[in-house]
Amino acid sequence: MKLICIGRNYTEHIKELENEKPSDPVVFLKPDTAILLKKQPFFIPDFSNDVHHEVEILVKINKVGKHIQKKFAHKYYDEIGLGIDFTARDLQKQLKEKGLPWEKAKSFDGAAVIGRWLNKNEFEDVNNLNFTLQKNEALVQQGNTSYMLWKIDEIIEYVSKYFTLKIGDIIFTGTPAGVGKVVANDKLIGCIEDKQLFSITVK
């Protein structure tokens, strides 16, 4: 399975990082080794002094598809989740300045938090989901999928032009504003609406 990640999908996050608004979705991949194992803490890697949290709505693909049309995209997932795309921001900045790929900053071991999954039918509209991240009981990120530049079905249509989607693949759909540094002993809790989907500690 693969983790397909969408960058720059919320306008306010684009502004806070002073990036240009893209004309197409920004896509990058994480390997399965990036997944933080269940009940394990997140260890800040020794090659970074500025790791940021980025909370994101996740989608799990349930059947194989290629060149999926937007009108059929809803048939390719049943479950919605929440996760964190941890980013070594200092390393990413160095790589971007040199025009190099981001993988070292985004795809290291433990850089992908995947919370528990919910059936999408639990929600009236997946394009109007509130989600939050708390750090040490303080609200640090909050978003709503209605503010995505590219909605879930549009993302599936776009990425399936380039990659065959397979059962178990997970799409990270982008983060809203409020990303920030994590330090040892931080506790991070992620929720969709009133449902807690993950709780992790930082070491």
UniProtKB/TrEMBL annotation:
It comes from the Bacteria. One of its GO terms (molecular function) is hydrolase activity. SUPFAM superfamilies: FAH. Keywords: Hydrolase, Metal-binding. The keyword Hydrolase applies. The keyword Glycosyltransferase does not apply. Residues 2-181 form the Fumarylacetoacetase-like C-terminal domain. Pfam families: FAA_hydrolase (PF01557). This is Fumarylacetoacetate hydrolase family protein.
